[in-house]
Amino acid sequence: MGEVYRAKDTRLDRTVAVKVLPAHLSSSVESRQRFEREAKTISQLSHPHICALYDVGNQDGVEFLVMEYLEGETLSDRLLKGPLEFEQVLRYGIEMADALDKAHRQGIVHRDLKPGNVMITKSGVKLLDFGLAKVIAPAGRSSGASLTALPTQAGSNLTQEGTILGTFQYMAPEQLEGREADARTDIFAFGAVLYEMATGQKAFSGKSQASLISSIMGTQPPAVSAVAPMTPPAFDRVVKTCLAKDPDDRWQTAHDVMLELKWVAEGGSAAGLPAPVVARRKSRERLAWGIAGVLALVAAAATIGYVQRAPKPSVPVRASILPPPGTLFDPIDGPPVVSPDGRKVAFNAKDADGIGWLFVRSLDSGEAQKLEGTRESYDPFWSPDGRFIGFGGTGLMKFEIPGGPPQKIADMADGRGCSWNRDNVILFEKTGASSIFRISASGGPIEQVTTLDKSRGEVGHWRPQFLPDGRHFLYLARAEPSQNSGIYVGSLDSKGAKRVADLDVPAYFAKPGYLLFVRENVLVAQPFDAKAFRTTGEPVVVGRDVQYVATWGSAAFWASDNGVLAYEGASHAAKQLVWFDRSGRRISTLGPDGEYDGDPRISPDGSSVAVKRLDPTTRSADLWIIDNSRGIGSRFTFDPARESDPVWSPDGKRIFFSSNKAGIGDLYQKETTGGGSETQLLKSDLWKDPIDVSPDGRWLVYRQRDPKTGSDLWLLPLTGDRKPTPLLATPFEEDDARFSPDGRWIAYRSNETGKEEVFVQPFPATGQKFQVSTSSGRSPRWTSGGRELVYLELPDKRKLVQIQTAPSFQSSAPTDLLLTPHPQGSDVTRDGQRLLINMPAAEGAPNPMTLVLNWTSGLRK
After folding, report:
1. Could you point out which of 18, 99, 183, 400 has its C-alpha 20 to 30 Å from the C-alpha of 687?
2. pTM confidence score
3. Domains with residue ranges and CATH for the chain
């Protein structure tokens, strides 16, 4: 409020700041009286962290204040650069709390505490504008103004002058309700400022004042430690108590808050536990904080970089990490893997377009780096020296840290579960094959290491991991029946294997001597002698609700050599199938909520929908058929392997799909009536998914992932010799193929222009092709007898193109059809009047990753 000028006090020969009261307030007698009265009150305050008020006056009808001149920047300007170092958060927080306590003892409530009213100087922070927000109202506004007068658009800081005074992001619920404010109101605002200093994010936000008010009144922000990992739980507690909705549940005085912050800064401990070790480091190094306690959040501080040198704390130290902004963790594509030295964690995360990328986060700085060239990667793993991250993708790849382009180890798009030893040997499983293989980290020939034991019913060897000697390794031998499965130790130097555990899930060795594995989403540790190759004790629970993907035998956890454990929570994000009409109006929901994945497929007669659904416990994927009239779903496939990508035959009597039960995404068909058995149509060493069937039922178009050319489109004859032929196999990515209703055209997407666009070409191919999208496109769907094409323009806009095929092919300019937020897959009815969208059932906070330092503390070997 007002304008501030630098000026010279000629009487005392000092530089001062002069703040002028705006003209629209100076015209109000009441405003002038309150301005002067409050200014006199504030002038009574003398505190090193409150901006001193020297004088108040009036010149030619203009009210002004003469204040202490401060050199520095406001806290709001500093926060534009990101969160503060934690030492600064504590120092500035203690200074602000002390200043607030001084004011409150004088009966002064700030009411507009925010980063813009905090100045950072060389001598610390200074609080500005005490008392003004509570007494100044805009000209012509009565004191009885109500919330209904609030504007709906979002501004830069959503500040509105009136009876509800201050800045909305920092207002307490009682202020928003028009109730009397007291010192505890400032404490709420102070908690919001502390939160923002520590995280760089506002505690409450909204697209409008109405949504912001709703957030303040009814939601809690994520814990500071979830946004800023390694923040101590004691600080979480300070902020959470400040932000309590009920004033009676907050700290009752600023003095209380100051004492709590000092206690955190001194590394206080609780519950009878010894005080944590705090390492003193050079000023340029960031102090990282951990969360102590296994069952209770007990205050403890530890420096990640000091973990190997300092005495180990006596309790595990826990923290939560949120995914990078705009992404969600993707444990299905591999676990988070901690570097051998425990300083970094690599993980997969999907962006807003559903595209997966590999990230590396430093646990010292808390910054996550997206690794370019890792699109749609999976199963990251570290080299023993921590210099490289390996991963699967278009080939078996490695990426040197901190930067550089990915390097290809092998042209192999199906390597999973890799482990790298100090002799630069990499073990891996090859999806679709049954054994463990090896390759040099610098490339070269691939050699088979293990052989299935058919006498035990083994069907696959999964998830190898080198033991500390670098010559022996663990692996899971999957068998049918599953009770014959087990964990074995194999060797690079000899044939044969020793069974060490009766498990049907992978197990990993963690120093100093444990097997880690997940059973029913519970992470357990069992003592294990890595030299004698035997378990030596009973399993102990170390984490709950941990993601496990049965399809890949992938559990979302990893432990470093020096006691840092990371795991991701089980994803139970319910989705729903929702009908929309062409105007974007939501019509109804189809069937129950569930973990649907990919495109729902409407049957030719419109009576049913086929869709892939994940089991919430086993994470296996099966196909379901939902009756469109009754909304009742029935399971269509029952194998524990992954079934996906259902495609109806033109007569609706069969469904084609992909399954990895006997290989790497082979093609199958099954009748939709009766209890017909599944028939394998095509088996090969490359991943395949069906996409569409020609209207005459003669051709199945499918995508095939080739390590040399990427995603290609192939045709499988459904009669005769069933010998597949390429439809589009280029260096570009082709996908999403759909036959036109008359079977004479195929729409598909390709990135040949540098981004994904929708094309149409004749069928059979003549060499012609026509681009119909203009600003990205995917998921084309023919409607209205082939006269229209609907497609998705990322991220959420459905576009419509009018199509004419005679006498020659022509397409109209794309027009907007409707917005479909958060689409996870879709289909369109044949007449084009309704769209079925797979979308989240409800918005929710992203699942965090959990870090545990010194995770073995308290476990008995």
Report:
1. 400
2. 0.49
3. 1-69 (3.30.200.20), 84-138+159-322 (1.10.510.10), 328-571 (2.120.10.30)
